[in-house]
Amino acid sequence: MTKIEKAVILAAGRGTRMRELTNDLPKPMLEVRGKPVLQHIIEGLRDAGIREALIVVGYHADAVWNFFGDGSRYSISIQYATQTVQDGTGRVVNLARDFVGDTPFVLSYGDILVDPTNYKRVADLPANVETIITVTRGEDVSKGGAVFLNEQMELIDIREKSRPDQTTSPWYNAGIYAFRPSIFEFSGKLNLSPRGEYELTDAIRAIAHSGKKVKALELTGGWADVRDPEVLARLNQE
């Protein structure tokens, strides 16, 4: 079992579905229960034993830099990388190559909120597993990735934003992963998806299809993709 101590958080997007709420802030800096979504993520990772984080910034990057600085206020070392072209999650992971070196790392989208106890589970990477993908049930698969697993919770396939009538999987991609550096081999070979983006999920599928083990981990407790004003309002009422 490898105990992961590095994490990468993708926080470069504007979040256009948030409309005027993101005029001056990137979506991960919107507040849920009194603090930014990104702060919830960073504190959860730190409490799970993560010592170093790389935040990938882009839209209104200054809002993130000014808030978190070098991370010392939060007892974690924080570095930054800038995504200059918004061309999907598949290429942006390459910005972390120098940061992670030859060590495994946790990767989280910057708008995903989970019960913090899950971070520790993701950060424990079994020796025979190449990648961990987290999953949850009961979500609309047309809004994200439908994940297809065998009886051992190993990935067979993942399909991005497929129509509900095309999909029979109960598992939804929950947006937090553990990777070994081999991810860079696969992300470097990506082609544009039908949506015109380089998709991280295409690289994960390629890892599984290469014969390496991609294990799914069902999250416990609450999970939320802070994707629009309605979700944000609901979280702040709870």
The CATH topology comes to: Spore Coat Polysaccharide Biosynthesis Protein SpsA, Chain A
Distance from first to last alpha carbon: 36 Å
How many H/I helices? 8
Low-confidence segments, given as residue ranges, are none
Strand content: 25-35%
Notes on the protein architecture:
The protein has 238 residues and is α/β, with parallel strands linked by helices. It has a single domain (2-237), classed as Alpha-Beta Complex (Spore Coat Polysaccharide Biosynthesis Protein SpsA, Chain A). Helix content is 24%, strand content 29%. The chain has helices spanning 37-47, 61-68, 89-92, 97-100, 117-122, 183-187, 200-209, 229-237, and strands at 2-3, 6-11, 31-32, 35-36, 52-57, 77-82, 105-109, 112-114, 124-125, 131-137, 145-149, 155-160, 171-179, 214-218, 223-225.
Brief synopsis:
The chain has helices at residues 37-47, 61-68, 89-92, 97-100, 117-122, 183-187, 200-209, 229-237, and strands spanning 2-3, 6-11, 31-32, 35-36, 52-57, 77-82, 105-109, 112-114, 124-125, 131-137, 145-149, 155-160, 171-179, 214-218, 223-225. It has 238 residues and is an alpha/beta fold. The model has no long low-confidence stretch (mean pLDDT 94).
